[in-house]
Amino acid sequence: MCGLFGVVRSPFADDPGRASDVFVALGALAEERGTDSAGLALLGGWPGLAGRPGGERPEPGGGCRVVKGRGRFSGVWRSEFLPELDRAPVVLGHTRWATQGSTAEPNNAGPLVVAGADGPSTTGGAIVVAAHNGDIDAAGLRSRFPLPPAAGTTDSEPIFQALAGCEGPSDVTGVLEALVGRAALVWVDRDRPTEVHLARAALSPLTVAVDTDQNIYWASNPRWFREVQEHTRVTFVTVVMLREGTYLKVGMEHRPGRRDVPDVLATATFLPTARDTDMDDRVWTGFTADDEECDRAGLLHRVVNRPGGPDGSVLSVA
């Protein structure tokens, strides 16, 4: 299983380094869920570094920098990234444990940069920066959506090709309900870099946390937040593992006449689907026994049998 982690940064923290420390610590902890490759994506950009004035907003289209490579997150991360990390409103991180797609192909490493069905060269063609933990029936997804040719060979890319064209929660949940397999997902429209989409479909875990500075974080394992709190200057006020079938959009809420703050911008639920072969103890790699037991008790996905073989050509509901 792969590791997901990241942050939507509050512009009002007196020290942006606290959230940056959390992000780097989460990346180190996420190595337990994958060392085939790792990466991070820095999106947007604040006009200043620390001490930003209260009414300041991110620069429009403030940029996107994706850094990734083979091996551990600790091998990809460099301290020279810290100034840019401190000023990025949104940062995505990923550690890969490959299930589909060669580890030697750079296009298979996350975070991915994926164009939707319209393509990047046409008006309205969305491009998303994204990360996936899980393993899904990519052939089945392609049979349901008119997707463009893929740049890589992962099952993750077609998911985000389909999601890139979504205009609202109902479109998003339509794609999420079409997934068959394990999936926790994080993606950002490159043209809207302060809004992050989070979804937990079947099995693959995803946890959301908020600290006292109003930074919003996500990670694959709730234990990581407990460990980070012990070893950094950050205190978390909320740590919640998402239930299967949950979609959230989080980001900077613009409120006329008031300060912009990170918040939940939209929510929706959907029915996730797993294959009968998807239940695997490795889903909870790194979990404590109590966290795993609690999560297993709340599973609510439907299950399909796969008598047609690995291509998923014949599915029946169990």
TrEMBL record:
Instruction: List the Pfam families.
Output: GATase_6
Domain Glutamine amidotransferase type-2 residues, every copy? 2-253
The highest taxon in the source lineage is: Bacteria
The record's SUPFAM superfamilies line, in alphabetical order, gives: N-terminal nucleophile aminohydrolases (Ntn hydrolases)
Identification of the protein by name: Glutamine amidotransferase type-2 domain-containing protein
